[in-house]
# Entry
Amino acid sequence: MSTQDIRSESAYATIDRTTPLYTIGIAAQLTGTTVSTIRMYEEKGLVIPHKAPSGHRQFSDSDIVRLRCIREHLDKRGLNIAGIKTLMSLVPCWVLKPCSEEDQQSCDAYTTSMEPCWMVSRKGPECETADCRTCSVYHIPDRCHDLKALYKGLIMTGEVPGDGAPTPSLHRKEV
Ligand code: SF4
# Structure
């Protein structure tokens, strides 16, 4: 089925924004980037594409929004890939999911800020077998214009301490 067919009214009623629709080539066109760049984003853990039974990568509307957000961080906000990864790694998944203290203690996402939670090798029991693409925590970085509102909300409800602790430098060091 072509993308155009999928977009037809009857077919569109049965899909949502996380349904895989686009090949990596189409995703590159839609986001103004290249196939190899999208593969690099995947390698760095910024996006998790669906895999067709043939092994080909497939991308959803939600992935397209996420890729455009990554491009915006790179092109207009002066971040580099490491900075974007750090932003994603700082999402407090244990508050948002939320998970038990036992889960937290056995999960690298709680104890380090080096990788986004969906990339850590040691996950708590609750996340061990989860499909991260269907998790609301994974989709938070899709909302790149909303992140501040999210953190403000968490701080106001006391769920994340607003103690002014220094954050890692996110700005581009290389051209
Ligand atoms: S299911 Fe995946 S994305 Fe969701 S909190 Fe667990 S590790 Fe993170």
Remarks:
- Residues 1-12, 161-175 have pLDDT under 50 and may be disordered.
- The CA atoms of residues 21 and 60 lie 5 Å apart.
- The pocket of iron/sulfur cluster is lined by residues 93, 97, 117-118, 123, 127, 130, 132, 135, 137-138 (CB under 6 Å).
- Residues 61-75 form the longest helix (15 residues).
